[in-house]
Amino acid sequence: MPSSSPSYADKPGLFPMRGGCACGHVRYELRLPPILVHCCHCTACQRQGGSAFAINAIVEADAIAVVSGPEPKQPESGSQPAAAAADSLLPYFARLTLAMPCHALVGDGSGSKEKKQDDEETKPLAGANSTAKETGAGDDAATTTTAAAAGRPHLVTVPTESGIGQTIACCPRCHTGLWNHYADAGPCLAYLRVGTLDGARHVDPDVHIFTRSRRAFVAIADGRPQFEDYYPDRAAFYRPDVLARVAALEDRRAAYRADLKAALAR
């Protein structure tokens, strides 16, 4: 294991750590330290997050539990603890902005071509319902309405270069992405978006990947290993304290891979 990998052994009490979406509707608890944290500079992560990179904490899917919690909190920073969001003007701002249809922002507002485009963009993506069942979320998470009522994430599948896709768990109200499921482990592992943790500043990357598409203004100066593509051997970055957890996942991952292989063969 590279000596630069961070350790959580010297941070007792850091986990469980809570997190959630921007509006506070979905609150979750990360019950174990990450198996691995990577900073991904690929263009897919840039598009999904609207940023230059994404920091993902890889954990067992069942290490994340949706919980009831407080109102939304601003993530803590180095200079101040987390605080309740100041939202006294939020209802007024929402009334001004939510009343404006998206198609009115472009074109002449006639509602012909623009309205059709808006309708197309707001249709649910194909595969969202089936993915909810495959990941064990059940029928309750298959629709935004039910997920919103229950305070659970909504699952939606988006395409990837591999052709397999990835599933994103997001808030059904504010649509904040919370964690992803990728083809490598499907429902067995979750790639938690570190920025949604209340104490995100305590969780740093172990490695940088897909730096071939790193934005020119991003200077990587944390001393962590860097790879132009995906890392050649992810296990090389596992801390000793997570090896038993990784081994315990192997049977489930093998069963998932067999199911995926059978599906691809059809």
UniProtKB/TrEMBL annotation:
InterPro entries given in the database record? CENP-V/GFA (IPR006913), Mss4-like_sf (IPR011057)
Show the GO MF annotations: carbon-sulfur lyase activity; metal ion binding
Residue runs in coiled coils = none
**Any idea which UniProt keywords this protein has?**
Lyase, Metal-binding, Zinc
The chain positions of domain CENP-V/GFA read 17-123
Keyword Metal-binding on entry: yes
Q: In which domain of life is the source organism classified?
A: Eukaryota
Q: In which residue ranges is the amino acid composition biased (Low complexity)?
A: 138-151
Q: PROSITE patterns from the entry?
A: CENP_V_GFA
Region Disordered, residue ranges = 109-154
Q: What family name appears in the similarity comment?
A: Belongs to the Gfa family.
**Protein name (record):** Glutathione-dependent formaldehyde-activating
In the record, what lineage is assigned to the organism producing the protein? Eukaryota, Fungi, Dikarya, Ascomycota, Pezizomycotina
